[in-house]
């Protein structure tokens, strides 16, 4: 058996360097004489590691001191509900921008805890274009504005950060976090599941401005309250220690690669390579997303004849190209090009696509 090019949308490929380091340290981590996942999360060794990881993240992403960094569980989906519970008081409303499946789900899961106002909606385009900024209906009295910078399923991405005035901007960065430099100060809160660009599934990153932790909201158990997690340095309950450790190794790998600016160049090149192959195929392959809204991270594409889909998937897997099946909501194909996917993997996919066209065209 040999490793292949993994285009999975998440859990996704991780840098091979990270996996090899984890493999080497699996039985004995540093001086612990045990695996990192076997030692207490409250031990001096692990607490020092947690502080080191947070410091690395703050340096890499330029996170200001007045933002808290939390390493939680439950994925981004749990945050859909928790952010409404923590950022809005009973009777308040929040503005939601719908640009795809995950924006829709975020609004739906928040609805029991906040009055959801749809401030912008791209459903009329079947999520092939972003909602025009001029049509957004934002309310200065909203508790927050929520949007999804990159839609993993539909393959749309915002090229810039929307201006929403003084209302806190909240963003689900699950599929584009750490893929390029980001001005954290433009946001009230950022959250992201780790399983695409940070590490394995089971860990969730949350970056929140400190003043939002003091908002008066509603009675709730401490385990649901962000302020409690912040007060206990993400150790209110037993955390995902192994996921936290792997995230730390991934942060170090990004730094060795040149940081977020280098990731941005690398990711832009990969996406441009694949889009050029799709657009240059003479219609054999197509991507339906408006060119100005195309994602760098998740690229759905369709063959000219859907009857060839199963053949494409079978032959691509035989060629060492994994997880190219599109999401069930859309069908077709999808290639996820997160940080860990190298340029060589994209070029291997393009070469296969061109060969498939010749053989089945």
UniProtKB/TrEMBL annotation:
One of its GO terms (molecular function) is O-phospho-L-serine:2-oxoglutarate aminotransferase activity. Pathway: Cofactor biosynthesis; pyridoxine 5'-phosphate biosynthesis; pyridoxine 5'-phosphate from D-erythrose 4-phosphate: step 3/5; Amino-acid biosynthesis; L-serine biosynthesis; L-serine from 3-phospho-D-glycerate: step 2/3. Binds 1 pyridoxal phosphate per subunit. It holds the Pfam family Aminotran_5. GO terms for cellular component: cytoplasm. It comes from the Bacteria. Its EC number is 2.6.1.52. Its main location: cytoplasm. SUPFAM superfamilies: PLP-dependent transferases. It catalyses: 4-(phosphooxy)-L-threonine + 2-oxoglutarate = (R)-3-hydroxy-2-oxo-4-phosphooxybutanoate + L-glutamate; O-phospho-L-serine + 2-oxoglutarate = 3-phosphooxypyruvate + L-glutamate. GO terms for biological process: L-serine biosynthetic process; pyridoxine biosynthetic process. Its cofactor is pyridoxal 5'-phosphate. PROSITE patterns: AA_TRANSFER_CLASS_5. InterPro entries: Aminotrans_V_dom (IPR000192), Aminotrans_V_PyrdxlP_BS (IPR020578), Pser_aminoTfrase (IPR022278), PyrdxlP-dep_Trfase (IPR015424), PyrdxlP-dep_Trfase_major (IPR015421), PyrdxlP-dep_Trfase_small (IPR015422). L-glutamate binds at residue 42. The modification N6-(pyridoxal phosphate)lysine is found at residue 196. Keywords: Amino-acid biosynthesis, Aminotransferase, Cytoplasm, Pyridoxal phosphate, Pyridoxine biosynthesis, Serine biosynthesis, Transferase. It is an enzyme of class 2 (transferase). Pyridoxal 5'-phosphate binds at residues 76-77, 102, 152, 172, 195, 237-238. It is found in: Cytoplasm. Homodimer. Catalyzes the reversible conversion of 3-phosphohydroxypyruvate to phosphoserine and of 3-hydroxy-2-oxo-4-phosphonooxybutanoate to phosphohydroxythreonine. Belongs to the class-V pyridoxal-phosphate-dependent aminotransferase family. SerC subfamily. This is Phosphoserine aminotransferase. It comes from Metallibacterium scheffleri. The lineage of its organism: Bacteria, Pseudomonadati, Pseudomonadota, Gammaproteobacteria, Lysobacterales. The gene is serC.
